[in-house]
Amino acid sequence: MNWVARRFEGRVHYGWVVVGVVFFVLLAAAGTRATPSVMMLPLEHQFGWSRGTISLAISINLALYGLAGPFAAAAMQRFGVRPTLLVALATLAAGVGLSSMMTSPWQMVAIWGVLVGGATGVAALTLSATIVNRWFTTHRGLAMGVLTASSATGQLVFLPVLAAISERFGWRPVVLIVAGAALLVIPLVAWLLPERPASLALRPIGETAEQPPASTAPPKNPIKVAFSTLGSASKTRDFWLLFFSFFICGASTNGYVGTHLIAMCADYGMTQVQGASLLAAMGIFDLFGTTLSGWLSDRFNARYLLFWYYGLRGLSLIYLPYAFGIDFFGLPLFAVFYGLDWIATVPPTVRLATDVYGKESAPIVFGWVVAGHQLGAAFAALGGGMLRSSLGTYTVATMISGGLCLIASFLVLRINRPARRVGVAAT
């Protein structure tokens, strides 16, 4: 790995190479998480499974994706980023590949719900927060924006292609392609991802020689660290404001729109490819919106950024049922405004967590906040499917999602100012 670092010496700090490697890891994980939305209609047609049944597996996946986050962050502190990530990617590839043989709903719940959900929880936002806090002293918001945008790029790269393959060849080739993508990033992690800047005799980007080096405390039990950090953080109001606002974030993005938009489009006579292309278009706009959000987070009050992000997202969702009735500008207008805002909430939320709880504890605290995000996603994935099954329409679920976003826009204004810090134990 040192020879790779020497190739970049004097040209670019190796921290940006690390961002590039993790970007591809998160891209593959994002494509994997998006795959069930492409599989929903084929599984419904082939096996007769209801959308509520399929949504149950997806909701378990989303919940475990979030709940694994704080333990993954603690495991990265104990065992190292690279070993933890390699085990997760191997598990992910094996689980997705194995799902090509499933024929019963319980198998989808076990594989896509439990196995894949837990593995993708390692290659998640907590990984981004860990990398950014280790490799960056300045430009953290920009780096976090770039890494968060990988989820949008995952949709952009995977969804239209996977939808087209699913329509022509069925869902089984889809899962094999996704498993192959997870395998491809394993060598990148093994060869190009060092543990810390100190492993290459470097300092984090923006850190001067006068600043003390990062602490190297002896490894601790990751489960104890995760729960100890939760116990300390949960005593503060800021944690719950971050947790519940991010719960709504998850409910209104990958939980509801990410899971149900393709099926919702089918209700209005659109094909799977058209629905997936709409998600991909939103991914393009989010790639710019989230990266810009990271840049803005380095310069402006994160609470006010979140107020506008949640408010505009809520208005976009309330507009969505009417967009299908507008011939030309309806859905493209939704794709632009909602897409720019898809996960732009992440960089300012990470900044608030870091400012309030400190650089060392922030990744684990943020891991628990992400758990709230994914519990919200699981709630919306299951609730959206159940409401669609019982009412025959997604309109009520869409309005509920939009209303929750408007509530979140006011919740975030109550989070304490960044200058006020709260110590969190990590023992």
Automatic annotation (TrEMBL):
InterPro entries named among the record's database cross-references = MFS (IPR011701), MFS_dom (IPR020846), MFS_trans_sf (IPR036259), Proton-linked_MCT (IPR050327)
Q: Which Pfam families match?
A: MFS_1
PROSITE patterns membership? MFS (PS50850)
Q: Which UniProt keyword terms apply here?
A: Membrane, Transmembrane, Transmembrane helix
Transmembrane parts of this sequence: 12-32, 52-73, 85-103, 109-132, 144-165, 171-193, 239-257, 277-297, 304-322, 328-350, 362-382, 394-413
- Residues folding into a coiled coil are none
One annotated GO molecular function is: transmembrane transporter activity
Signal sequence span is none
Domain Major facilitator superfamily (MFS) profile, by residue range, is 17-420
The name this protein goes by in its record: Sugar phosphate permease
